[in-house]
Amino acid sequence: MLYKWKAVDKEGKPAEGRIEAKSQNEVLAFLKKQGLFVIAVREDKHPSKIYSKASGAIGRVSDVDRIIFTEHLATMVRSGVPLVDAFEIISNDFNNPTLKKLANDIKTNLESGKSISSSLTDYKKIFSSFYINIVRAGEESGKLDDSLRKLGIQLRKDHALKSKVHNALIYPAVLIGATLSVMSLLVIFVLPRLAGLFAQSGVKLPIFTRIVLAVGMFISERLILISILVVLMMVSFIFITKTRRFKAIISKLSLKLPKIGSLAKNVQLARFARTFSSTLSAGIPIVHSLSLTAETLNDTYRKIIDGSSHEIEKGVSLAKILKRHSEFFPNIITGIIDVGEKTGTLDELLLDIANFYDEEVDNVLKNLTAIIEPVMLIIIGFGIGGLAISIITPIYQFIQQATI
């Protein structure tokens, strides 16, 4: 909810503004922390456009832009640059129109008495609940620079992890795409043109050549219709991949596949440990930390973490809960978490776990790449080689007949 407030500072100067909060008491507590004597606080039932439509036209912001934005802000806060000036500098420095608008909006909101974290809630498509809560914790503890610095590190690590997996999958994807393109060109355009030549020559075609020719003729005669069907199938597939049910199925399947399952688990464990560590070190209570961490995980891990919150509130240790899910949380993790809970160093030990699984991801990716490359080359060799033979064999027979 949005509240309008009026207050007087220590020097007796009047001040007023708007602030987003859950209740009037939260507004009063925030203003008192700022050293203001509150005169009036009331709900703003007619918010201005900057509050009601701030997120109306949100564009795309890349992971790299988000990282640079966070790191720039952290540097300026640590250097003692006033927040209003910091966001004005960011607005001038960035070329991304969405970040420019965001920085200008936050600057205006700060001048009206709104906090950074409250301003960021207008941009939930850009900044996750995890991000916003870390900033809020930094504001409340007076350690905003440290929270932003850790956020920058977290975002860089997450981006690096995502890039490693993405780059490992690009090579086979490009190879498969190129192979299918070459095979399609041969089957749809080259072979049908040779069909007339083969028919006139009276050469008896091998069974494989006849099958490939039949497929090629069928596709070339209905090329427009098949192209439309392919596009519709691709659009439908993209739509299906965005559904919660599909993501849940892929989540379960990816964790059970050989080699791929090991990679998927290591990625999720690294993300779990690093995010959980960041929220705890920011001073966020453990139950809320787990809720924020769960949002960053896939469906399988999210359900496990979300389900643990209720038991933790009853006093059950996190290590004990996770031990029941040994398929997804190895003993090494539950053992370290158990030690961390008992010694009060859980956030530090979780960071060690995250670094360990980052290295494991690297190792698994290297092994996967070593396996995928020769397998892909063999498959491509059989595919293109088979097509080449289906074309070359009748041509060779035709040449032999012509020379007799």
Architecture overview:
Pfam families: T2SSF. This is Type II secretion system F domain protein. The chain crosses the membrane at residues 169-191, 211-240, 375-399. The chain is mainly alpha-helical and 404 residues long. It folds into two domains: 1-47, Ubiquitin-like (UB roll) (Roll); 157-404, Receptor-associated Protein (Up-down Bundle), CATH 1.20.81.30. It is built from 17 helices and three strands. The protein has helices at 24-33, 49-52, 63-78, 83-93, 97-111, 116-120, 129-141, 144-201, 207-221, 223-241, 244-256, 260-281, 286-294, 299-313, 318-323, 331-343, 346-403, and strands at 2-8, 14-20, 37-43. It has a three-stranded antiparallel beta sheet, covered by helices on one side. A hairpin with a 5-residue loop joins β1 (2-8) and β2 (14-20). α7 (129-141) runs antiparallel to α8, α9 packs across α17 and α13 packs antiparallel against α14 (299-313). The longest helix is centred in the middle third of the chain and has 58 residues, at 144-201. It is elongated and about 110 Å long. Mean pLDDT is 83; it is low at 47-57.
